[in-house]
Design goal:
Isoleucyl-tRNA Synthetase, Domain 1, 38% helix, 18% strand, Rossmann fold, OB fold (Dihydrolipoamide Acetyltransferase, E2P), alpha+beta, 22 helices, 688 residues
Length: 688
C-alpha cells in the first residue's frame, strides 16, 4: 500500500552557517525520505529557515544591514550547503513569509476563540547594552540544579533539567556579555492545562515518541500541571507583530514550528495540491526529525498548537543526540566546530553521509566523530568492500557486456534478495547502523566470491572467456544489489553504479532483479579513498592555519599554468619574488577576477603538471582551463570547490587544447596553494 508521508527536519536558525552537528539531523532525515521514495511512497520533505528573534536583529544591526538582507544571504548559504550534501528537499522556505504569517494568524485566532490566551506582567532578563529582553537561549550561566557552567537559560545539557532563565546562576547575555537585569515586561501566555489530558494521551500511548522521550515528558512535565507558555515579546523585536496586540510580537518559538505548515502551504500552491490533504488528513503520516535539545517544544507546545488549529498531530517524532568530536563538544578554539563549507574544502560529502549512517541508531545517543574511525569506515567499507566489486570486474566485460543468462552463483543473489525486508525494517526504524551492517555482510560474501573466482586470472586464458563473463556478471549483479540498498545513504554513488550497468536504480525492487545481457559502460572512478591528513587538516583551528601571502594582481610571474609565486613567511617570499612594478588603478581594473566553481577535473595525459578544469561562472557556457596544479591536488578533490579565476584572459591554444582563463594560486619551490573565497561567495561574483 502506498503511504503518504510528510517529513521535516528542525528549521535551521538563520543566524549562522550549517555545521557538522546540524548535518547529523539533515542527513538522518534525508536518508529516511529517500528510503521511503525508493519504496514507492508519496513523500514530501519540507524545510525552511528559522528567521525571527533578537539574535537576528542584533547581528543585522552590528553588520549595518536589515534583518531581511541578513536572512536572504543566509538562506542562500544554507541551501548551497544542503545541496552539496545531497539533501533532497521538495521545498525550502522561510518563516519570514506571508504563508507563515497567514497560518500563524489562523492558529492564533483559534487560541483566542478558545480563551486560551492570557496577559500579565512578568520579570524577564534584559540586556542593558543591547537594550532588549533576552530569549532563554541567549542567556548562559550555571545550571541551578547541578552547577554545570555555560548552560542555556532553558535547559541543562549535563543533567537534563529544565528551568527558567531567571534561575540561572551568574547569567550573562550571549549578545554583549553583560549581566542581564530583571525588568518587568507585559507578556501574552497560552494556557496549556486544559490540553494536558490530550497531551498525556498522545505522548504516552500514541507510539509517536521513543520510549526515552515519553518517559522524560512523564517525569519532568506531565506529573504536574503544565505551566502557561510565554508566546510574545515586546518591541524592539524582529518577527511578526501580533494582529490583536499592537507592539507585541510572536516569540520565535511560536511561529518557527508553524513554518512546517507554511512550507507545505507554499509547496502545495506551487504544485497544485491541497494543504488539507497533507496536514488535516488522518492518513498522512507527519514525521519530525529533531535534536534532543528542543524535545519539549516539539512534544508539548507544538502538538498543543496543532490540536487547537485543527491539524494532524505527528505520527512520529524522531529525536537524535548531539555530535561530539573525540568525545568532546564541538569547539571553535580546538578546531572541532567545523562548518559544512569547511568540510567540503577537504572531504567528499558522501563520506560523511555514510559515516553518520553507520553510527545512527534509533536511540538518542550522542554521536562521536573519531578521525581514524572515519577514515577506516570509508576506505574499508565503501572503497574496499563495495566499490572494489565493480573495479575488479567491470573492465573485463566492457567489450562483451553481461552474460545472456544469469550464472550459478551458489545462492549469493538470492541471499541478498532475502535480506531486503530486514534492511528495509532497519531503515524504517531509523536504525541505519543496523541497515549498514546488513549491507556490508552482503558485500563481504560478494568479495569472498571475487577472491575465490579471481577474474583477473581468468582474463589471462582466452579459453575461459565465457567463464570470465559469467563471473563478472555475478559480481556486478551483487554490486548493483548492494548499491540499491545503499541508495538512500549514497545517492551519488548509486547513480554512478546504475549508469555503469544501464540500470534505473530508482526502485527498491530492483535489488530483486538480476541484470543479464546488458552492456557495461567504460569503467570510471567511482569513489576516492580518504586521506587521514586531509581529515586532520579540517580540524586544525582556522586561526592556526598559516595564510599564504597573496601577490598583487596582475603580476608578471603568473604563468599559463595559473601559479602565482609567494609562500613561507613574508620576508622569505618577497626575497624570492620581489614586488612587481607599480601599476595604476586603471590597469588593475582591466583584470576581471571572478569566483568560479569547479564542476569537473581530470588529469591531462602526457602532461606532468597539468589538470584540465571545467569551470562554471554560475551562468553562460563553462570555461576550459589548464592549471599546473597536478602535484598538489587530485582531480576529485577539486570538484565542487570554489576558486578564483582570471575571467577575461584571452584564450590560449596549448598542445592539449584551448585554455580559456586562469585559476589563481600561490606557491614557491614547487608548492601550490589554490586561493579560495570565504563561505557565502557565489560563482560569477567579481573580486573588488
Amino acid at each position: 500500500m502506498t503511504r503518504q508521508i510528510l517529513v521535516t527536519s528542525a528549521l535551521p536558525y538563520a543566524n549562522g552557517p550549517i555545521h557538522l552537528g546540524h548535518l547529523v539531523e539533515y542527513i538522518q532525515t534525508d536518508i529516511f525520505a529517500r528510503f521511503q521514495r525508493l519504496r514507492g511512497h508519496n513523500v514530501a520533505y519540507l524545510c525552511a529557515d528559522d528567521t525571527h528573534g533578537t539574535a537576528i536583529m542584533i547581528r543585522a544591526q552590528k553588520e549595518g544591514r536589515t534583518p531581511e538582507q541578513l536572512i536572504a544571504d543566509m538562506t542562500v548559504q544554507h541551501q548551497r550547503d544542503f545541496a552539496a550534501f545531497g539533501l533532497s528537499f521538495d521545498h525550502y522556505g522561510s518563516t519570514n513569509s506571508p504563508a507563515n504569517y497567514a497560518v500563524a494568524s489562523g492558529i492564533w485566532a483559534k487560541l483566542r476563540a478558545a480563551d486560551m490566551v492570557v496577559e500579565r506582567s512578568v520579570e524577564r532578563l534584559y540586556d542593558p547594552v543591547q537594550k532588549t529582553f533576552l530569549a532563554d537561549r541567549f542567556v548562559v550561566g550555571e545550571c541551578p540544579r547541578c552547577g554545570t557552567k555555560e548552560q542555556y537559560g532553558d535547559s541543562c545539557e549535563s543533567c537534563g533539567s529544565t528551568y527558567t532563565a531567571t534561575e540561572l546562576k551568574n547569567p550573562r547575555s550571549v549578545h554583549s556579555g553583560a549581566t542581564p537585569e530583571l525588568r518587568p515586561s507585559q507578556q501574552l501566555f497560552v494556557r496549556l492545562t486544559g490540553l494536558q489530558p490530550m497531551l498525556t494521551e498522545w505522548t504516552q500511548r500514541s507510539g509517536a515518541l521513543q520510549s526515552e522521550v515519553a518517559n522524560y515528558l512523564a517525569g519532568h512535565f506531565l506529573d504536574k500541571p503544565l505551566q502557561d507558555w510565554d508566546v510574545s515579546r515586546p518591541a524592539p523585536y524582529f518577527g511578526f507583530e501580533i494582529p490583536d496586540a499592537k507592539g507585541q510580537y510572536w516569540y520565535v518559538w511560536f511561529d518557527a514550528p508553524i513554518g512546517y505548515i507554511a512550507a507545505a502551504k507554499e509547496w502545495c500552491e506551487r504544485t497544485g495540491q491541497s494543504l488539507d490533504a497533507w496536514w488535516k488528513n488522518p492518513q498522512c503520516e507527519v514525521v519530525h526529525f529533531l535534536g534532543k535539545d528542543i524535545t519539549y517544544f516539539h512534544t508539548l507546545f507544538w502538538p498543543a498548537l496543532l490540536h487547537v488549529g485543527g491539524y494532524q498531530l505527528p505520527k512520529r517524532v524522531q529525536i537524535h543526540g548531539f555530535l561530539r568530536v573525540n568525545g568532546e563538544k564541538m569547539s571553535k578554539s580546538k578546531g572541532t566546530f567545523v562548518t559544512a563549507a569547511r568540510y567540503l574544502e577537504y572531504l567528499d560529502a558522501e563520506w560523511l553521509r555514510y559515516y553518520y549512517a553507520s553510527k545512527l541508531s534509533n536511540k538518542i545517543d550522542d554521536l562521536d566523530f573519531q578521525q581514524d574511525e572515519f577514515v577506516g569506515k570509508v576506505n574499508s567499507d565503501l572503497v574496499g568492500r563495495v566499490v572494489n566489486l565493480a573495479s575488479r570486474s567491470a573492465r573485463f566485460v566492457e567489450a562483451t557486456g553481461l552474460s545472456a543468462h544469469y550464472p550459478d552463483d551458489g545462492g549469493l543473489f538470492a541471499r541478498g534478495a532475502a535480506a531486503s525486508e530486514a534492511i528495509a525494517t532497519a531503515y524504517e526504524a531509523c536504525d541505519y547502523r543496523e541497515a549498514m551492517r546488513l549491507v556490508m555482510t552482503l558485500a563481504d560474501a560478494a568479495n569472498e566470491y571475487v577472491e575465490k573466482r579471481a577474474p583477473w586470472t581468468l582474463k589471462k586464458d582466452p579459453a575461459r572467456a565465457q567463464e570470465l563473463q559469467d563471473v563478472c556478471t555475478v559480481v556486478l549483479n551483487l554490486f548493483h544489489q548492494i548499491v540499491v540498498y545503499l541508495q538512500p545513504v549514497l545517492p551519488a554513488l548509486a547513480a554512478r553504479g546504475a549508469a555503469l550497468l544501464g540500470s534505473r536504480g530508482d526502485r527498491w525492487e530492483l535489488a530483486q532483479t538480476r541484470l543479464v545481457g546488458g552492456k557495461v559502460a567504460k569503467f570510471e572512478h567511482l569513489m576516492a579513498r580518504v586521506e587521514l591528513d586531509k581529515v586532520q587538516a579540517m580540524f586544525v583551528p582556522e586561526a592556526a592555519v598559516p595564510v599564504a601571502p597573496v601577490a598583487p594582481a596582475p603580476t608578471p610571474t603568473i604563468t599559463p599554468a595559473a601559479t602565482a609565486v609567494g609562500t613561507g613567511d613574508a620576508g622569505d617570499a618577497l626575497s624570492k619574488e620581489p614586488l612587481a612594478s607599480e601599476i595604476g588603478i586603471d590597469e588593475f581594473q582591466k583584470v576581471d577576477l571572478r569566483i568560479a566553481k569547479v564542476i569537473a577535473a581530470e588529469a591531462v595525459p602526457d602532461a606532468k603538471k597539468l589538470l584540465r578544469l571545467t569551470l562554471s561562472l554560475g551562468s553562460g557556457p563553462t570555461r576550459n582551463v589548464f592549471a599546473g596544479i597536478k602535484s598538489a591536488y587530485e582531480p576529485e578533490q577539486l570538484v565542487g570547490r570554489l576558486v578564483v579565476m582570471v575571467a577575461n584572459l584571452a584564450p590560449r591554444k596549448m598542445k592539449f587544447g584551448l585554455s580559456e582563463g586562469m585559476v589563481i594560486a600561490a606557491g614557491t619551490d614547487g608548492e601550490v596553494f589554490l586561493l579560495s573565497p570565504d563561505a557565502g561567495a557565489r560563482p560569477g561574483q567579481r573580486l573588488h
